[in-house]
Amino acid sequence: MGASILLADDERGMRDMLQWELGNLGHDIKLAATGTEAIAQLRAADFDVVISDIRMPGASGIEVLRTTRLLAPDTEVIMATGYADLQAAVECLRGGAFDFLQKPFELDDLLTTLGRALERRQLRAAAALYRASQAILAAEDPKRLPGLIVEVALKVMGADDVSLMLPGDDATLYVAEASGTRHVVQGEVLAVGARVAGQVAASGDPALIERDLAHDPRFANVPSFNRVRSSIVYPLSAGHRLVGVLNINRVTNPRPFRKQDLELASVLASQVLLALENRRLLQSVAATQRLAAVGQLAAGVVHEINNPVASVAANQSFLRDRLDDLARFDALFDEGADLETLQRARDKLGGKAFVPDLQEVLGQAREGATRICEIVRDMRSLARDDREESNIVDLNATIRSALRMAGAELRRHAAVETRLGSDVDVLGSAGRFSQ
Question: Which residues contact 297 (CB under 8 A, 6 or more apart)?
Fold first, then answer.
């Protein structure tokens, strides 16, 4: 792809000649007859290279150089003059010029210098992308990844507004992270197919919007915010599965994105996609590991449940036998038994201890059933996923739950002593704490 070049020179013949020669090589050439015109164009658009004469009406070439370094530090500047002196050359190079050419120069010399300038710009862009990729892929905290992606995109793409949208439920996208001028709100939900991001998500084709939406027939049905000057909307897809959408905007920056920026966004998007997929796999592995932990505890849990189940079963059998005795005692009343017979039958049931015995057995059965409920609740807590909402949690209760779950295994290897403080309520997930 040809480069975007700003040619600033007050000699019309020089402008026409270089525009012809460089245009034939596929470069996009913009012309400025004065330094003031060159500075105005620098404020309105991005260029890969600026070729500027030093002496021009209005602002000088040195001022063009300084403005370029201020507005577009990655743009290379080649200075040229027919009145060369050592001081001017030193001033240009100190100001950040890529090279200094003396007129009249051979076209081949200019082309060689231009090629080296473009190569250095590409190397600088590649280095910035490499650093961005390293930062994204090295993120240790999965929860910080969306914020890091937005932060890197702002810097690498020269944007002032970036948002990352991820798939939600029922064919929707939600804003996972937004930064910059915040023309979107974090957490905002958008249907796939709606607005620009939704249409890009549905089609799978990236969109370069160089000016307002009104100038782009693809999005004629989308209401314009009138705040975004230029955008790159890039879908993140793994095969046919939508992973997200990266929205890169210039709101306050008047210079529109170019096709070269779309290529840069393509490389960045591939790294973002890789990082998001890595995060998904890590979360899947973590969930699998939690389920594996549940499986490893299963044998111990069976042992833990066996005891209260056996207690409930034994107490239930005892109660059934005592109820049979009570039914026989009740039959004596129907038969009209005398008081002495009833007394002997009552003594046989256990006398005054009969009812307290029944109450004690019922209590033991209740304790066994409660223990079984606790074990089931602990198992459910252990198997919960990361989406559980945070609540006020008694940390002591989660410690006891974890000890109950691991109790059978722990007793084979160690004695556990607990010293639990009071009033240790915290904000979080009881299941995650227990895990």
Answer: 382, 405, 406, 409
Q: Are the beta carbons of 172 and 189 closer than 8 angstroms?
A: yes
State the CB neighbour count (10 A cutoff) for residue 48: 23
* Tokens of residue 431, six digits: 């299941």
Closest CA relative to residue 390, chosen from 349, 352, 427: 427
Q: Could you tell me the CA-to-CA distances from 269 to 8, 52, 195 in Å, in that order?
A: 35, 35, 20
pTM of the model: 0.58
What backbone torsions phi and psi does residue 74 show, to the nearest 5 degrees? -85, -10
* Residues 125-176: tens digit of each pLDDT: 777 777 777 777 777 777 888 888 888 888 888 888 898 988 887 788 888 8
Residue 350 and residue 357 in contact, taking contact as beta carbons nearer than 8 Å: yes
- How many Cβ atoms sit within 10 Å of the Cβ of residue 50? 29
Q: How many residues does the chain have?
A: 435
